[in-house]
Specification:
The structure holds two protein chains of two kinds. By secondary structure, chain A is of the alpha+beta class. Chain A contains 28 helices and 25 strands. The termini of chain A are far apart. Chain B has a single domain, classed as Arc Repressor Mutant, subunit A (Orthogonal Bundle). The chains are: A alpha+beta, B mainly alpha.
């Protein structure tokens, strides 16, 4: 006998015995053992064990399987019986059944919608074949103690990246925001007379088409942007302006600038819906120089930069090497300028490479002028989905165990006639699968019915993937998972009954698991209350934002767009508009105090201090002399611009914040400079006003007199005359620009758009907290009516003995209201903490006050009382004889 | 047109049963198959096929006497039946007739040396 005899893996052997026909066992065991011993001798023990598993799996073939293999799980006849009994039970207790299935279906609807949402969010920028090699360049600055990240780089960086770094395959620059012709423009083919407003123009290097793997409908990726003044348009735009033809080579005009025509170099496929950037127009950067020497100057950061690495190159190895750009180009440039900034840059400036797939969800803290989502939203939604499903599962568990009395006799009898506990567990799990199946079908119906509504609040265009084969196995797996989750405890609980006790009727039902039921109800209501508190806080914050004193007046301000095509005629249009009685004042400026408007920033120094001090970054806007009056901005000191004072061409009005940041005690008359233009004289100080989202602090801002023709005209209307004003203004406009339809927006609407994200969060929280409370109440209702049903006789006897209706009502509802109370106490600190976190994002946020909790708690308690009292009240009022005559 | 009733795998296994003779049980058959063809095969696959061949009547089997090598377990040893022999011969003859019609190769030597 050998001592160190190796044995085949025990589990594999067990598994084999489980499915193998009895008559085959001896020979197969022998064969496999021989094989195993041979393998052990030839290779290693580990390999031999693996090999054994492989051989066992290869015996799962029809000839070798036990004929009753499937029946081991469940015989067909038993399954039939289980389903029949389940179905009868389902029909007998219609109310409980509908609550069980309905609540479940609601939970599944919510989960399904959220799963679709999350799938869409995670799928952003996932379609590139070379996706793992495409990166966006990000700069990081940690001076002044805080980290700021941005995506704007200097023009020459593209050449440096290509030349100095052999790991990089391609580089492309992009100007996606409102700058020169990027942004929105009046657009027409040369052959057409009418101008149309089009947006999403961007300047791009030809290589961007290659990096973003854009498919071309006409023209080629290589040539489409290669010529100076070429433009690539999307299929959508091509279909609109050049239906059924190949527009390559056609000339198009932007903003009526006939001396700067663009030639269509290609037509690209429309961008898919889930990419971080979507443009319909790419203007080439080939041959572009925005001012003399711009393309070789390291002064100004205006270009977003995308790169594609060579296969096998590592981004993390490249990142530290990129610092040579700072040391070889940026710092020497600023040293030559004798700028203090050089030292700051040398110490605090660095680069990061952001994978293109991360841009949508992982761009928090990166200032890139893009609207993107946040991975936290994905977590939040995922969390809500799981919580709501949990609520539905709890209902299922509570109702199943509460109703155990009805099934106890069945369990007892089944055991008496020979059923094992495992059979009963199987029976109840089968039942739970049946329930889940019905709930899934209903849930799918609900989801497809509510999807359009969900899309409108989530700002998505999701569809249920009926045609995707992967959808069905996933549904099946989740169905089984949920069925198991919900059915496991009830099946264990129900199958435990002792036949003798049950059949004698001596089992006290429902008392043992009362504590569990209570805990689960508390959990349900805690979740609901937290969601309600959240919905309240988000709502309040939204109201706060919309009604806050902004420092300017956003009501009755209408913005006319596309006025740049008027050229010299703009002042005349303005004059004629002012003649109208419905119009109070008007101001031409591209810069508006809402965040989707044009922006421009410079650094400012006190005159003569450029080399000694750090500059203060400030917005500089071009406005006309009516801007302050039209927007109702308050002047704190000094005076407004005047047309009659020639020196106002170099005058500035600054906001209080800028005066403070620059350390100007008496700003009027002081001179400041941005380093490349003649110094400005400060003539006035404005009160601070919110021109960006309230997530950030009000930043320094100054305004100067406009020189060219702005693309928008802000018009302040007399209150109550909006519709008249529109008709009258349209008439005036059409006299000036018959080929360009009037286009306008309202400032307050654009302001509200800034907070679209908050509004969405509000709606979604409200929706889901409503859903949560509905599901929780369904459960509470069923549970309380079940308890009332059980205690009917007790209530009747008490009544006969003289108990009042009120005291009976109290008796029946007290327990549940206690549970809700406990839930409230638990959820309050959690809700307070979570919403405090959320509000941290807002510099100008509300305080969470006690009344929020009071209202949230009050509402929940009220709903709970209503839910519980329906059946309780009936029981307390019913004449006792109805319940007692059967004894 | 005569039909070969055997698949390639089946035919090879029948031949191997003949070759191995007293040692023709599933494990050995699988091992021999691997040695002869260089292709790996699982014991289950072999077992499933020979049991099918047995059902068709080409093979017969009986349990051997217990031996100490495999924990005292007996093995099922297969032997070829008269029908099996005939099917093999037919299959060979059929192929031979096909080869006879095949344009001769330069070596001219097409012996089946089994």
């Amino acid at each position: 006998m050998r001592i160190n005899k190796e044995n085949p893996p025990k589990w594999a052997h067990r598994f084999l015995l489980w499915f193998l026909k009895d008559e085959l066992i001896e020979e197969v065991e022998g064969d496999l053992l021989e094989k195993f011993e041979k393998e052990v001798a030839k290779t290693s023990r580990r390999r031999a064990r693996l090999q054994y598993w492989y051989q066992v799996f290869n015996y799962i073939r029809p000839f070798a399987l036990r004929s009753d293999w499937f029946a081991q799980f469940m015989s067909y006849a038993m399954l039939q019986n289980y389903l029949k009994v389940a179905w009868r039970n389902l029909l007998r207790h219609k109310m409980y059944t509908s609550i069980k299935i309905g609540g479940f279906a609601l939970g599944i609807t919510a989960c399904l919608l959220i799963a679709l949402f999350i799938q869409d969010e995670l799928g952003f920028d996932n379609h590139y074949q070379q996706g793992d090699r495409i990166y966006r360049l990000v700069n990081r600055d940690d001076s002044r103690g805080e980290v700021t990240k941005g995506t704007a780089f200097q023009a020459p960086i593209a050449d440096v990246l290509t030349k100095d770094f052999p790991e990089i395959e391609t580089v492309a620059r992009l100007v996606p925001y409102d700058w020169y012709n990027a942004g929105s423009n009046q657009f027409r083919p040369l052959s057409a007379a009418e101008n149309n407003h089009e947006s999403t123009f961007a300047y791009a290097d030809p290589s961007l088409l290659d990096i973003l793997e854009i498919d071309m409908v006409y023209g080629s990726v290589e040539s489409a942007l290669a010529e100076p003044n070429s433009i690539v348009i999307s299929r959508k735009v091509a279909d609109k302006y050049f239906p059924n033809q190949d527009p390559v080579g056609e000339t198009v005009i932007l903003n009526e600038k006939l001396d700067e025509p663009y030639k269509v170099g290609g037509v690209m496929e429309d961008f898919p819906p889930n990419v971080h950037l979507k443009h319909d127009f790419f203007l080439t950067l080939v041959g572009v120089e925005f001012w003399p020497g711009e393309q070789t100057n390291w002064c100004c950061s205006n270009y977003n930069t995308y790169i594609r690495l060579k296969p096998g190159a590592s981004a993390s190895a490249l990142t530290p090497k990129l610092l040579s750009i700072r040391d070889d180009y940026l710092v020497p440039f600023f040293r030559r300028q004798n700028s203090q900034g050089a030292e700051e840059i040398a110490q605090h400036y660095s680069f990061e490479l952001q994978p293109i797939r991360d841009i949508h969800l992982h761009s928090k803290g990166i200032d890139d002028h893009n609207r993107h989502s946040d991975i936290r939203i994905v977590w939040l939604f995922g969390g809500i989905a799981i919580l709501i499903l949990l609520l539905a599962v709890i209902n299922f568990i509570n109702l199943s165990t509460a109703k155990s009395a009805n099934r106890a006799k069945e369990v007892g009898l089944r055991k008496v006639v020979g059923s094992f506990r495992s059979n009963l567990i199987r029976q109840f799990l089968t039942e739970s699968v049946l329930f889940s199946l019905l709930a899934f079908v209903l849930g799918l119906l609900f989801a497809s019915a509510t999807l359009p509504f969900f899309n409108s609040i989530a700002g998505k265009s999701l569809t249920i993937p009926w045609t995707d084969w992967r959808f069905y196995p996933m549904l099946t797996v989740s169905l089984l998972f949920v069925a198991f989750l919900a059915g496991l405890y009830p099946s264990l609980y129900l199958s435990r009954f002792r036949p003798i006790q049950v059949l004698k009727g001596s089992l006290s039902l429902g008392s043992k698991n009362k504590r569990l039921q209570g805990t689960l109800v508390v959990l349900q209501f805690s979740i609901s209350v937290i969601l309600i508190i959240s919905a309240f806080v988000v709502s309040r914050q939204m109201n706060f934002i919309l009604n806050k004193e902004l420092g300017y007046e956003k009501q009755q301000v209408m913005i006319l767009h596309g006025t740049n095509t008027l050229g010299e005629q703009l002042p005349t249009l303005k004059e004629q508009l002012l003649q109208l009685s419905s119009i109070r004042s008007a101001s031409a400026s591209n810069y508006l105090p809402v965040s989707d408007s044009k922006r421009d920033a410079n650094s400012f120094w006190k005159e003569g201090k450029e080399q000694e001090e750090l500059g203060v970054g400030a917005q500089i806007w071009e406005v006309d002399e009516d801007y302050i009056a039209t927007l109702g901005i308050q002047l704190a000191e000094g005076r407004n611009f005047s047309k009659d004072i020639a020196s106002d061409a170099t005058a500035l009005i600054i906001n209080r914040r800028m005066a403070k940041r620059m350390g100007l005690e008496n700003p009027i008359g002081q001179r400041v400079t941005n380093g490349f233009r003649p110094p400005f004289t400060i003539i006035g100080v404005m009160e601070d006003f919110h021109f960006e989202s309230m997530k950030g602090r009000i930043t320094p801002l100054c305004v100067e007199l406009v020189k060219d023709t702005p693309a928008s005209l802000a018009v302040k209307l007399e209150a109550e005359q909006v519709s008249d004003a529109i008709t009258e203004m349209t008439a005036v406009w059409d006299n000036f620009l018959p080929n360009q339809p009037i286009r306008y927006t309202f400032l307050d609407e654009r302001f509200a758009n800034m907070y679209e994200g908050v509004e969405r969060t509000r709606k979604i929280f409200t929706g889901f907290s409503l859903l949560a409370i509905i599901i929780a109440c369904l459960g509470l209702f069923a549970l309380s009516s079940f308890m009332v049903e059980q205690r009917k006789k007790e209530v009747s006897i008490r009544k006969v003995l003289g108990a009042s209706t009120v005291s009976l009502f109290k008796l029946l509802t007290r327990y549940f209201l206690q549970l809700v109370g406990v839930a409230f106490i638990i959820s309050m600190p959690i809700g307070w903490y979570l919403m405090g976190k959320w509000l941290e994002d807002y510099t100008y946020g509300i305080d969470i006050t006690w009344d929020i909790f009071l209202i949230a708690g009050g509402i929940t308690l009220l709903i709970a009382i209503l839910t519980v009292s329906f059946e309780s009240l009936k029981a307390a009022i019913d004449p006792p004889i109805d319940n007692l005559r059967t004894e | 047109m005569k039909e070969t009733k055997l698949g390639e795998f089946e035919e090879v296994l029948l031949l191997l049963v003949g070759i191995l003779h007293d040692e023709a049980y599933a494990f050995k058959l699988a091992e021999e198959f691997e040695n002869q063809t260089g292709r790996s095969v699982s014991i289950g696959a072999v077992h499933s096929t020979v049991s099918r061949l047995e059902k068709k009547g080409f093979l017969d089997s009986e349990m051997s006497a217990p031996s100490p090598t495999r924990g005292g377990r007996r093995k099922r040893v297969y032997s070829i039946t008269a029908l099996g022999d005939r099917v093999l011969a037919e299959s060979k003859a059929f192929k031979q007739s096909l080869w006879d019609q095949y344009p001769p190769l330069s070596t001219g030597n097409l012996g089946f040396n089994l």
